[in-house]
């Protein structure tokens, strides 16, 4: 298949480019119309704006309290990621290095929970969260993400640790390193490729998550981007001029993240799914 | 005599030292296991496993979420749901239909993209990025974006071109709203599936393809007889992912149609959410959630078993 560039390939290429343009059309509509006045959108949504209007963005920036919600989303995503990486890499390493029935059963216990839909645990979780005092707080939701993130991340680490040679660790043990030192100084750096995958998968999930924040975060000051966007739409129904500006603002951070790290992301997604 | 006693006590001493040494070693081993595995296990149990079993319990109660009294009512909730809850039944019907349409379409598109991008195109990397792009946007924002496309964008294109497709009522009508959600889901997920299929295609031994070419196999034969059988594991994964994502659809559904028109596109996840948090029927909501869990578990296990068996046969 990887042969010379002939006419057939050229046609295929043109076809693929047209498809890609078609794929991007929704972005065209959203961006173009976010720069128009409301009446101009109603006249013709397909045309370019007569004059670029940035006032929508200025208004929405304040209504959404964008810097605030952006920072909230960022804090939740970053700290959830750190915690998930630490606890699941440690657990999976120990489980792989302690063969036996107990580790095996524990692994199955973790992994089989992946079939539990979030909707099945959400109702009691709200009750339990209230009892534990972790509702309506950013540290609280981060703790919840630890719990929900563990199964998949542990599964990915578990598969990877198996391929890491034991000999290096044994040598370090003989030299008198403690278990923690062996793990953090020697093993963890070797896990970097799968750590990247784990972080990418968890970031896309947590950053975009809507339902858990909806249940947990009530105060306006701790809302995330998806929460703020949905309450904006509930309040300003059909006011597309501002609504579209809100959407563009909402998707920009994650798209920038993606474009910067796209090679890692696409590789990581493929690696994470095939394992 | 004395000496033998001494000897005895000596050996006794030795064994106690040995056993304490042994237990302390065991203890140490246990402690280090607990230190490494404990945190993950703790968070996992508190956040997922305990609520899961609480949910099983609540499904047999009439709890309303507010009162402290939780009354045990046996299978009443289950009976009520199975005999007298057409809305829940409808939401299952919608979700199942949606799942089939969404799984088939997004996998066909994803696989086709992968085949195209596996050729020696010059713009391969850019195209891959473009096709994957919608997948990084969350379902909620995506739903709002497409609400605008369907309501304003399509009608604008329809006015320009007079093509019937763009002049349909889309989100305003039950059958087109259904396809509206399928389109958006496919737009979001196809790129993801494509990435998995590409990874699988790159693992194929090119000499097999060359051999088939020399034997004069047509493109269709090559895809169905050689490529697909060789990458069946990728199909298992992609079907598993799309089935579970489609079945649990919530955000996109909520922001695109809100379940409308007339609840015709209400997914099970939305139905459960409303039962619990809009109508405050936590008991019934829990029952619905447990039934949902059982169906999702059965569906995904059966699918994995079936496709795995195909893998073995191939």
UniProtKB/TrEMBL annotation, chain A:
<keyword id="KW-0813">Transport</keyword>
<dbReference type="GO" id="GO:0005886">
    <property type="term" value="C:plasma membrane"/>
</dbReference>
<dbReference type="Pfam" id="PF00528">
    <property type="entry name" value="BPD_transp_1"/>
</dbReference>
<feature type="transmembrane region" description="Helical">
    <location>
        <begin position="105"/>
        <end position="126"/>
    </location>
</feature>
<dbReference type="GO" id="GO:0055085">
    <property type="term" value="P:transmembrane transport"/>
</dbReference>
<keyword id="KW-0472">Membrane</keyword>
<keyword id="KW-1133">Transmembrane helix</keyword>
<feature type="domain" description="ABC transmembrane type-1">
    <location>
        <begin position="70"/>
        <end position="261"/>
    </location>
</feature>
<feature type="transmembrane region" description="Helical">
    <location>
        <begin position="242"/>
        <end position="261"/>
    </location>
</feature>
<comment type="similarity">
    <text>Belongs to the binding-protein-dependent transport system permease family.</text>
</comment>
<feature type="transmembrane region" description="Helical">
    <location>
        <begin position="69"/>
        <end position="93"/>
    </location>
</feature>
<dbReference type="InterPro" id="IPR000515">
    <property type="entry name" value="MetI-like"/>
</dbReference>
<keyword id="KW-0812">Transmembrane</keyword>
<feature type="transmembrane region" description="Helical">
    <location>
        <begin position="138"/>
        <end position="161"/>
    </location>
</feature>
<protein>
    <submittedName>
        <fullName>Sugar ABC transporter permease</fullName>
    </submittedName>
</protein>
<dbReference type="InterPro" id="IPR035906">
    <property type="entry name" value="MetI-like_sf"/>
</dbReference>
<feature type="transmembrane region" description="Helical">
    <location>
        <begin position="182"/>
        <end position="207"/>
    </location>
</feature>
<keyword id="KW-1003">Cell membrane</keyword>
<feature type="transmembrane region" description="Helical">
    <location>
        <begin position="12"/>
        <end position="31"/>
    </location>
</feature>
UniProtKB/TrEMBL annotation, chain B:
<keyword id="KW-0812">Transmembrane</keyword>
<feature type="domain" description="ABC transmembrane type-1">
    <location>
        <begin position="92"/>
        <end position="303"/>
    </location>
</feature>
<comment type="similarity">
    <text>Belongs to the binding-protein-dependent transport system permease family.</text>
</comment>
<feature type="transmembrane region" description="Helical">
    <location>
        <begin position="98"/>
        <end position="120"/>
    </location>
</feature>
<keyword id="KW-1133">Transmembrane helix</keyword>
<dbReference type="InterPro" id="IPR000515">
    <property type="entry name" value="MetI-like"/>
</dbReference>
<protein>
    <submittedName>
        <fullName>ABC transporter permease</fullName>
    </submittedName>
</protein>
<feature type="transmembrane region" description="Helical">
    <location>
        <begin position="177"/>
        <end position="201"/>
    </location>
</feature>
<dbReference type="InterPro" id="IPR051393">
    <property type="entry name" value="ABC_transporter_permease"/>
</dbReference>
<dbReference type="GO" id="GO:0055085">
    <property type="term" value="P:transmembrane transport"/>
</dbReference>
<keyword id="KW-0472">Membrane</keyword>
<keyword id="KW-0813">Transport</keyword>
<keyword id="KW-1003">Cell membrane</keyword>
<feature type="transmembrane region" description="Helical">
    <location>
        <begin position="132"/>
        <end position="157"/>
    </location>
</feature>
<feature type="transmembrane region" description="Helical">
    <location>
        <begin position="289"/>
        <end position="306"/>
    </location>
</feature>
<dbReference type="InterPro" id="IPR035906">
    <property type="entry name" value="MetI-like_sf"/>
</dbReference>
<feature type="transmembrane region" description="Helical">
    <location>
        <begin position="30"/>
        <end position="58"/>
    </location>
</feature>
<dbReference type="Pfam" id="PF00528">
    <property type="entry name" value="BPD_transp_1"/>
</dbReference>
<feature type="transmembrane region" description="Helical">
    <location>
        <begin position="222"/>
        <end position="247"/>
    </location>
</feature>
<dbReference type="GO" id="GO:0005886">
    <property type="term" value="C:plasma membrane"/>
</dbReference>
